[in-house]
Amino acid sequence: MKKNIYKIIILIIAATFVCSCQGKEDLEDPSLIAVEEDIIPTQKYVGIYPMASYDYFTDHKRGFVLAGEELNVIATYMGPAENDIAAMEECFQSAIAEQVDGIILFGADDSFAFLINQAAKAGIPTVTVDGDVKESDRIAFVGTNNIQAGMTGGELIAEILDYSGSVGVLTEPDVDLHVDRTNGYATVIDKYPEMEIVAIADTKATPDFAYEAAKNLILDYPELDAIVCTDYFGGIGASVAVEELDKVGEIKIVSMDRNKYVLDKIEDGVISATLVQQTALMPYYAMKILHDYVNKSIQIVADNEKANVTGVPAYIDTGVIIVDKSNYIEFYRN
Q1: What is the tally of helices (H) and strands (E) in the chain?
Q2: Are 229 and 202 within 8 A, CB to CB?
Q3: Residue 29 lies inside a defined structural domain of this protein
């Protein structure tokens, strides 16, 4: 008689640590995957994220789940529905207390350095994704090279404007990854004598604030030629403001990422283009790095640990793709 192959190998759940993470939004129902009896997983890895209610993180979850299935580990994706750093920290503390094998963290704030270091002392490695916590004991970062992404956007808007014009930036000026993207834009735009960044405004990671910021940019700078955005909230807010103030076509917009609204506005000609990250690759490769690290990384020297060698990549750039009217249709999420 065949073995009973219906055993649980992957538990994709959002609230494993109920005591410390009460009130966090469940991001995935338990999934049962068919396997043989003798390969039930034992290692546990956790992904800690904010803003579970935003579709951007669907891609993170997809890569996280796929890596967990391929590696045959218990993968737990968790975090708050909104941009709640304190709630993420609570989940991180629970993961340390649970003595998981590894943690993938959306590096949303430098305040996580203390917890990453605490986890390292407890023998739990952390890989940051999307946003980095550079001054910490994380073993690796996997995500977009944000300075390069900004430079890609800078060259794009320069070409759109024929290398002449005034540009406003919608960003999150208190978040390192957005600062890097803004600096990338500035590096390129500063090369062109007839181009200038006239103002930088804060989206506060919400469409409403982004709309107000974009509207104020347009009203304060009547000769504004373009708005570039380091998040998709900026793309949403800028497109609403441009339409409301009858500036479609007059003010060019370069957004970030592939929210449906942004893609619809590319179709309508309101947004010229958006820079799309290969987001699912971030947790996918982060999980594999953690798994390699936990299960004996590649030997670089006779004694990696004694030599303070991790044996895993320290940095993986997952890149960005320019999406415009020529290819936008392919980027709608199913």
Answers
A1: 9, 12
A2: no
A3: no
Give buried/exposed letters for 210-230 (b at 16+ CB in 10 A, else e).
bbbbbbebbeebeebbbbbbb
Name the residue among 286, 285, 266, 288 with its Cα closest to residue 276.
266
271/152 same-domain check: yes
3 inside domain: no
The values of phi and psi at residue 165, to 5°, are 150, 170
pLDDT tens for 182-208 read 999 999 999 999 999 999 999 999 999
Task: Kindly state whether residues 164 and 131 are assigned to the same domain.
Answer: no
Q: Which residue has the tokens 């347009």?
A: 218
Look at residue 112 and tell me if it is in a domain.
yes
Give the C-alpha separation, 281 to 286, whole Å: 8
Say if 174 falls within a structural domain.
yes
Q: What element of type H or E holds 250?
A: none
Nearest to 67, CA basis, from 278, 288, 277:
288
Over residues 107-153, the pLDDT tens digits come to 988 899 999 999 999 999 999 999 999 999 999 999 999 999 999 99
Q: How many domains does the chain have?
A: 2
Please report how the helices 85-98 and 113-121 are oriented relative to each other, as an axis angle in degrees rounded to 10. Answer: 0
- Cα dihedral across residues 152, 154, 155, 161: positive or negative: positive
**Whole-number Å distance between alpha carbons of 125 and 117:** 9
Same domain as 177, residue 270: yes
- Looking up tokens 């209610």 gives 53
* CATH number of the domain that residue 267 is part of: 3.40.50.2300
Q: How is residue 306 written in tokens?
A: 């004694």
